[in-house]
TrEMBL record:
It comes from Aquipseudomonas guryensis. This is LysR family transcriptional regulator. Keywords: DNA-binding, Transcription, Transcription regulation. GO terms for molecular function: DNA-binding transcription factor activity; sequence-specific DNA binding. It comes from the Bacteria.
Length: 300
C-alpha cells in the first residue's frame, strides 16, 4: 500500500462524501479507492468511515485523522511545488476565512479574476465574523477588522476602514434626527458583538479636541456583519458602518449619514496567518491579490 495514495484517497472520499466521486476526481477506479481506504483502516486498526448503500459518513476517529491528513498532504504538495518548475503555476487547496460583508461586497465579486489568473488554486472560503483558530481549524489565513491581539500570528496591514454613523429614513422619521452624538443616549442603536469578547463594539467620535463615546439603547445585538447591516436597513436603530458597506445604501437613500462634521476612529484591516505555516506559492499569490484588491477599496 502506498500510504500517500491511501491518505489522498481517504481525504477525497471525506470531501466528496462518495467513493465514486472520489474515484472520478482522482482518475482511479472505485475499486482501487475502496481498497486503498480499506488498507489504510487495516494498517491503523480503526474504522475511518461508516458506509451504507446510500452514503458515506466519517467516524469521529476518521474526522480527527482527516484534519491531520490534509495538513500532511498540503505540506507535501507545497514542498514539491516549491522545488519544481510547477512553482510558476501556484496550485492546491487554500482555506481562507473572511468577514461576511467583505466577502459578499468585495472579495467574491472579484474572484472570477483571481481564478482566471490562478486556475489551479481551489479556494475554500469560510464566510463569518466568528473567531477562527487558524491551527485548530486548519485555516491558511484570515482577514479581520480590528487589532490583531494574538501576537503569535503574522499580520499584514491591509488598510484602515473609514467608519460613519447611519440610520434608515424610517427610523429617523419615527425617532427624530439627532443633531449631536450626545443625543444618541436617547436613541436606539444596533450593537455589533465582538467574536471573542462578545462585547458590543464601542465607537468614539471626534471633532477637533472633543471626543465622545457613542452610547445608546441597544435594540438588537448581532455578531454577523450582514445581519448588522440588515438590522439598520430595517430601521431597528442607529449603527456605525465601514464606508464600503454603507456606500450603495447611502446612494440609494436607504441609509442617511449622521454627524458628518465628526470623525469615527478608523478600524484597521489585517490579513493574518500562523508563523509556523509555510508561505506556499498559493498562499503568497493570494495574499498579494488581497493586498491589491483592498488597495482599490480601503485606504492605507
Amino acid at each position: 500500500m502506498d500510504r500517500f495514495d491511501a491518505m489522498q484517497a481517504f481525504a477525497r472520499v471525506v470531501e466528496t462524501g462518495s467513493f465514486t466521486k472520489a474515484a472520478d476526481t482522482l482518475h482511479m477506479s472505485k475499486t482501487s479507492v475502496t481498497q486503498l481506504v480499506q488498507q489504510l483502516e487495516a494498517r491503523l486498526r480503526v474504522r475511518l468511515l461508516n458506509r451504507t448503500t446510500r452514503k458515506v459518513n466519517v467516524t469521529a476517529d476518521g474526522a480527527a485523522y482527516y484534519e491531520r491528513v490534509i495538513r500532511l498532504l498540503a505540506d507535501m504538495d507545497d514542498a514539491e511545488t516549491s522545488l519544481s518548475a510547477a512553482s510558476a503555476v501556484p496550485r492546491g487547496r487554500l482555506r481562507v476565512d473572511v468577514p461576511s460583508p467583505l466577502a459578499s461586497m468585495i472579495l467574491i465579486p472579484a474572484l472570477p479574476a483571481f481564478h482566471q489568473r490562478y486556475p489551479e488554486i481551489q479556494l475554500d472560503l469560510g464566510v463569518s465574523d466568528r473567531y477562527v483558530d487558524l491551527i485548530g481549524d486548519n485555516v491558511d489565513c484570515v482577514v479581520r477588522g480590528g487589532t490583531i491581539t494574538d501576537q503569535s500570528l503574522v499580520a499584514r496591514h491591509l488598510g484602515d476602514l473609514q467608519l460613519g454613523v447611519y440610520a434608515s429614513p424610517g427610523y429617523l422619521a419615527r425617532a427624530g434626527v439627532p443633531a449631536h452624538p450626545n443625543e444618541l443616549a436617547t436613541h436606539q442603536i444596533v450593537s455589533f458583538l465582538g467574536a471573542r469578547s462578545r462585547k458590543a463594539f464601542a465607537g468614539i467620535m471626534q471633532r477637533g479636541e472633543e471626543r465622545i463615546g457613542l452610547l445608546g439603547r441597544p435594540a438588537l445585538a448581532v455578531d454577523d456583519g450582514n445581519a448588522y447591516l440588515a438590522a439598520g436597513l430595517a430601521g431597528l436603530g442607529i449603527l456605525w458602518l465601514p464606508q464600503y458597506m454603507a456606500k450603495a445604501h447611502r446612494v440609494s437613500g436607504a441609509l442617511v449619514p449622521l454627524f458628518e462634521d465628526w470623525q469615527l476612529d478608523p478600524m484597521p484591516l489585517y490579513l493574518a496567518y500562523p508563523p509556523s505555516r509555510h508561505v506556499s506559492a498559493k498562499l503568497r499569490v493570494f495574499i498579494d491579490w488581497v493586498v491589491e484588491l483592498m488597495g482599490e477599496h480601503v485606504p492605507r
